[in-house]
Amino acid sequence: CSVRLLVRKYKEQHVISPSEFTSSSRYLKAPLLEEFILEEVPHSPSRLTPYDTTTSLPSISSWNLPALRTLAVHNVDPSILPHKFRHQIRSLKVQLTGHDQFTKLSSLSSFLGVTRTANMHLSLDNFRFDQRYAPERVHVLPDLRSLQVSFLCCSQTDWERASIRSAFCFYQFTGLTRLSVVLDVGDPTTVLWNDEDMLLHSFLVADSRFPNRFPCLEVLDLEVRLGAIDDSIRTISFPHAFIPSSLNHLRIRSSFALSL
After folding, report:
1. How many CA atoms are closer than 13 Å to the CA of 96, on its beta-carbon side?
2. Whole-angstrom Cα distance, residue 210 to residue 25?
3. Sequential DSSP letters for 95-125
4. Does residue 218 contact residue 247 with C-beta atoms inside 8 Å?
């Protein structure tokens, strides 16, 4: 059983308002509800009233959701889910699309820190790393067992301050056993060094202070797609030095001749 709640950034007359939603859904009991989906609907060109999707849902804290295990968000900060339900989440799906979604990615660490998520799918599409990511501490994720990450048409503005590496290097996946990475090559605005695509390297690279980010990793599944901008870039930097000794299965898939 699942529910799809469309958190609209803008509302029109035919869309229920936040106050109406609050009054009509107060004390909702859904004992079979397992998945909660939050989506931000793109704005319309007509005259609309802004709706802030970064604040907590107004009435869900009074709901009774004992079976809730999965949270799926699309261009919505997962922290919008009240603290009351976060400890129940075992599966998290986060999809961020567009160049203006970086703040939602940067807040993901604090949300994961108070959950026991075992499976996560993070999808970044047309995403730009254009802000400095400076976490206050290392984020250790001992409960996360399976992680799937998709980087499609991603770009970064700075190797040091606003980069894929700076956004992920402080995550310590101490319990992760399975990692799947999907990425595309051929976009010169992504992460290139000597005509090699460095995106995978940037994601897996370890900080000098925390050299072992994936101590239990057993399966690494890599899918490489050809980008639409420059199909001459068909070489990716494979970070051999950061592959843990625990790895026992490596699969690399691509639809073209790929150099590592």
Report:
1. 23
2. 46
3. EEESTT-HHHHHTHHHHHTTS---EEEEEEE
4. yes
- Termini Cα distance of the chain: 44
**Per-position DSSP letters for 142-205, written without gaps between them:** SS--EEEEEEES-EES-SSSSSHHHHHTTEE-TT--EEEEEEEE--TTS-EETTEE-HHHHHHP
Q: Closest by alpha carbon to 203, among 178, 179, 186? A: 179
Contacts of 199 (CB under 8 A, 6+ apart): 151, 154, 164, 183, 185, 190, 191, 236
> Largest Cα–Cα distance of the chain, in whole Å?
59
Number of H helices, E strands in the chain: 6, 17
> What is the mean predicted confidence (pLDDT) over 150-159?
80
Q: Which of 107-111, 136-140, 159-163 has the highest mean pLDDT?
A: 107-111
pLDDT for 23 equals 64
Angstrom distance (rounded) from CA 112 to CA 256: 36
181 pLDDT more than 70:
yes
Give φ, ψ of 111 to 5 degrees: -70, -45
The number of residues in the chain equals 260
Task: Report the distance separating Cα 84 and Cα 178, nearest Å.
Answer: 29
Could you tell me the two tokens for 143? 């409960």
Instruction: Give the amino acid at 60.
Output: I
In a 3-state reduction of DSSP, which class is residue 223?
A: strand
* Strand pairing category for 192-193 and 196-197: antiparallel
